[in-house]
Design brief:
- This protein has about 300 residues and is an all-alpha fold.
- The protein contains eleven helices and no strands.
- Helix 3 packs across helix 10, helix 6 packs across helix 8 and helix 7 packs antiparallel against helix 8.
């Protein structure tokens, strides 16, 4: 007579072993989550500690100086105003170029282009371009915008170079957002007599907007912290006048922070930390505005 008391999923010992494996898996996932959170908290705590007392109103409204005394409270006044203005203009121009070019290319590839080897070839190359090192885009911007188009080391050349950098990411993320729109909604719109343009404008793009905005936000967040591409197109490390036009020379916050971090005086490490805090604040503010816009126009909210 058989004495087997196991279940169809195995015996009691087997079930306990699987539960132990499950608990270990959860612990590994939790530890992986903690790595990112702890690293972020440590970074923010360190820069806040290093920058404490160095962020003043003058730091936000004055040009940089080579003398540490000018950065101290009560000093003549020094900061990173030209770099702040340069970064804001740079990201604004990059956002405009990227949204028009990236979303336009994704809509064409996903909604209009017929399935063919050429389309597959283009999509594969766009996906590969997303992994190209940023310094390569800097060299490309130097060759095309600075030298071939004679734009010089200008704000517009820097913005176009950053656009090239993040364009593949925006195209890929927008395509994924467009694919997530149920095809039944397209067919329903066609069923009531809408044209393809009307379907894309009134049905597809509103449904895909949250995904499009998420990809664009992440891409612009990467662009505002990039140094190598704008270094190659000639961005200044220290500029004493804010840019006042598209053809003006420019500086950016990552360039100024890098310059301060390489100076031998120990006080400049605190000033560099203050610059990092300002950069992170602008980045978070930019992301908050973009998330608000995304949620405001999300048809599911």
């Amino acid at each position: 007579m058989s004495t087997d008391t196991g279940t169809p999923f195995g015996g009691a010992e087997d079930i306990e072993r699987k539960r132990t494996i499950g608990r270990v898996f959860v612990a590994v996932c939790f530890a992986s989550t903690l790595v990112g959170i702890v690293a972020l908290v440590a970074l923010v705590a360190d820069v806040l500690y290093e920058s404490w007392g160095w962020i003043t109103w003058e730091f936000l409204t004055y040009p940089p100086s080579q003398s540490v005394e000018n950065y101290l409270p009560g000093g003549r006044g020094a900061g990173m105003y030209p770099a702040i203005v340069g970064s804001v203009f740079l990201i604004a121009l990059t956002a405009v170029f990227t949204i028009f070019l990236g979303v336009g290319a994704a809509v064409y590839l996903e909604e209009y282009a017929p399935e063919s080897r050429l389309k597959s070839f283009i999509e594969a190359n766009i996906a590969n371009l997303a992994g190209v090192p940023s310094i390569v885009y800097g060299l490309l911007g130097l060759a095309i915008f600075v030298r071939a188009f004679q734009l010089g080391s200008s704000l517009i050349a820097g913005a176009l170079t950053l656009t090239l950098l993040i364009l593949p990411i925006v195209i890929v993320s927008t395509q994924e957002a467009l694919r997530a729109v149920p095809d039944s909604q397209r067919q329903a719109a066609y069923g009531v007599g809408a044209t393809q343009w009307q379907v894309i404008r009134d049905v597809v793009l509103p449904r895909a907007l949250p995904g499009i905005m998420t990809g664009t936000i992440l891409s612009l967040s990467r662009a505002i912290g990039e140094t190598a591409p704008i270094l190659m197109v000639g961005a200044a490390t220290s500029l004493f006048v804010a840019p006042d036009g598209l053809r003006s020379p420019f500086s950016a916050m990552p360039m100024t922070i890098f310059e301060w971090a390489t100076l031998p005086e120990a006080e400049f490490q605190h000033i560099a930390a203050a610059g990092i805090v300002v950069l992170l604040t602008i980045l978070l503010a930019m992301n908050a505005v973009a998330i608000f816009i995304r949620n405001r126009y999300d048809p599911r909210s």
